[in-house]
Amino acid sequence: MAAGAGTLELPFTCDEQLTRRMRLRFQSLQQRNMRPQDGERLLRPNEHIFRVDFIQQHQLRFLRWNVQLERPGKVTVTGTSQLWTPDLTHLMNRQLLEPVGIFWKKPGAEEVECNEADAQEFGERIAELAQIRKVMYFLLTFTGGLEPAQLKGSIVFKA
C-alpha cells in the first residue's frame, strides 16, 4: 500500500485464525484442568493477534504510525520477537517486545494520541526486525470498550 513517493505503508491485519487458535488453547487447558507452560502467554478476551506483512524488508526507515480509532478507547500494540513461530510454538512472555505502542482517543477528541517517544522507538525496532522477517505478529489489547473492527492502523516507512 503506497503512502506517497518513497514511502511504504504496511497495514495491521487482524489474524482471526491465529487468535481463534490461541483462544482454543486457553479453553483446552481449562477443560482439562491443566495449567499453561511456565511463562506461556495466554490471550485474554480483549486481546487479538494482528500481523504486518513486509512486502519489502531492507532499507526501511520508520516514519510514523497511522492509527485511527472510530470511538474513544485505548489500544496497546505489543510486538513479538522473531523467535515466535505461531504454527510451531506457544507464545511465551519472554517473546513480547518492549517498548509497546499505546494509542488512545479521548471522548470528544478527533485525534488519536500516543506516547511519542515509545512509539518512535517501537517503530524503529520494527524496521530493524523487518530485515529478518517477512511477517511480524503483534498482540493488540483493546480497552475502554474498543473492538478490533474499530481500529484502522498501519506503519509508514521510508523505503
Unreliable spans: none
Number of strand segments: 9
Which oligomeric state applies? single chain
Q: Assign the structural class, choosing from mainly alpha, mainly beta, alpha/beta, alpha+beta, or little secondary structure.
A: alpha+beta
Number of helices: 2
Gap between N and C termini: 12 Å
State the shape: globular
Question: Percent helix among the residues?
Answer: 10-25%
* Strand and helix order: EEHEEEEEHEE
Question: Quick one: biggest sheet?
Answer: 6 strands, antiparallel
**Beta-strand content estimate:** 25-35%
Average pLDDT for all residues? 92
Rg (C-alpha, Å) = 16 Å
Strand order of the largest sheet: 2-3-8-5-6-7
Brief descriptors of the model:
single chain; 159 residues; 6-stranded antiparallel beta sheet; 3-stranded antiparallel beta sheet; 19% helix
Notes on the protein architecture:
With 159 residues, the chain is an alpha+beta fold. The protein is 19% helix and 34% strand. It is built from 2 helices and 9 strands; from the N terminus they run ββαβββββαββ. The chain is globular and about 55 Å long. The mean pLDDT is 92.
